[in-house]
Structures are given as C-alpha cells and as structure tokens.
Fold this protein.
Amino acid sequence: MDDKTLKMYKSLTELARESCKNSYSPYSNFKVGCAVMCGDNVYTGCNVENASYGASNCAERTAIFTAAANGERKIDIIAIAAENSDGKLCDVTPCGICRQVIGEFSHENTKVLLLKQNGELEVYDFDKLLPFKFTL
Ligand code: THU
C-alpha cells in the first residue's frame, strides 16, 4: 500500500473513532463508530440503542443509511472502530446483518478497515467477509 492510501485509511479510521463519541449505547456500553467513503464524500454514524433491544441500530447501518439517503449507491471504503465506556479501543467486526447491508452497496473492490484494540489497522476485501451474499 502506498503512503497516500495509508494516510487516507488512517484519517477515515480516525473519523470512525471520533464517531464513537456520539454513540447512544446505555445498555451495552459498547460504543461503535463508522465512516463510509463513497467517491469524494464521507458519511459517519454510530450505534443507537433502544430499551427494546431489537430496535437498536449498528454504527455501520447508521452510516450506510445516511449515505444512501444522500443519494450514494456505492461504498468504496468502510471504516469501523469501537470503544468501551472508559474510551479504550475494542476489537470489532461488522455483524451479519451489517455485512448484508454493506453488500447491498459494495462493489468488487470495496474495502473494510477495522481499528484493532492495539491501535493497528486491518484491511479486508469486503467480498472475503461475506461471500455468497443474498441477492434478489
Ligand atoms: N454494534 C455495532 O454498532 N456494530 C458492530 O459491528 C457490532 C455491534 C453495536 C450494536 C450494539 O449497540 C452494541 O454494538 C453491542 O452489540
């Protein structure tokens, strides 16, 4: 990976981490932030929980639905970060429902960036995280 790409990946991941600040997660105390890049545009989101747990929304879907509501249809890169209630980084990977939602707007080169507990950045090809996604 070249320096320019790495720099861009790091700033997108930093935006994902900053988005943890807005997380509404009084039930799990697990704050998740997400930043989605679609062309030149970036959209962020956080998890938003509900007393009726099933009504909660993951950070990835908050960010992706915001992107879609702004007219975006293709995700180039999605970055995800999570913190505990002390603000310490936690490992996180997108849940199954979010993978299906990413898949709705992914293309053959969509990348998934995960900020690990140790501060390292991991990069995945989306297709590897959800092979054989459901399509209509
Ligand atoms: N969560 C996310 O927002 N994204 C993930 O990738 C994993 C889980 C949220 C859902 C819930 O608010 C909390 O984390 C604990 O599951």
In short: Residues 3-129 form a domain with the Cytidine Deaminase; domain 2 fold (CATH 3.40.140.10). The first helix runs from residue 3 to 19. The CA atoms of residues 10 and 87 lie 19 Å apart. The mean pLDDT is 98.
